[in-house]
Specification:
Low-confidence stretches: none
Strand content: 15-25%
Helix content: 25-40%
Radius of gyration: 29 Å
Strand order of the largest sheet: 3-4-5
Number of helices: 3
Distance between the termini: 89 Å
Order of helices and strands: EEEEHEHH
Length: about 150
């Protein structure tokens, strides 16, 4: 679990051979009361965490990475910002760590390069012949199921 008080570190992965570091100053954390577990203290402690990152203004990304993030996360962006909310833990510190972990995973997934395009293949001549032979045999079986016409 990462220390919530420092930079956001995205581990290396596809498209990120060295990983990525988002400076702490570019992350905005807001705290509010959580609706989750916590008993009597749930109404008095600000344990819910909202972590906001402005992708367009961030210095952590290259132009290519920024464009890829904006394209892939278009449905989740509001005014060019991505917001992650964590409220599953009772402690604010654990929610801060969970939000950072979730944001790092989301960025890592969105920055991965697209998979190579599928190259369509054609069935081999042998497989086509086997398929046609099987269809012919099946047709013969079915034609043998008709009414029996006797000579008389």
């Amino acid at each position: 679990m990462s220390d919530p008080g420092d930079d956001l570190r995205v581990p290396p992965g596809p498209g990120l051979p060295q990983g990525l570091v988002v400076p702490e100053g570019e992350l905005l954390e807001r705290f509010s009361r959580s609706a989750g577990p916590g008993g009597q203290g749930v109404n008095t402690t600000d344990s819910r965490v909202e972590l906001v990152l402005d992708i367009g203004a961030s210095t952590a990304f290259t132009d290519v990475q920024r464009a890829r993030l904006q394209e892939r996360l278009a449905g989740r962006l509001v005014d060019g910002r991505i917001t992650i909310t964590a409220s599953e833990h009772r402690a604010q510190l654990r929610n801060r760590a969970a939000a950072r972990e979730r944001l790092a995973g989301l960025l890592r997934e969105a920055l991965a390069p697209p998979p190579p395009p599928r190259r369509p293949t054609r069935p081999t001549r042998g497989s086509q012949q086997r398929r046609l032979d099987a269809k012919r045999r099946r047709g013969e079986v079915k034609s043998g199921r008709g009414r029996v016409h006797g000579d008389g």
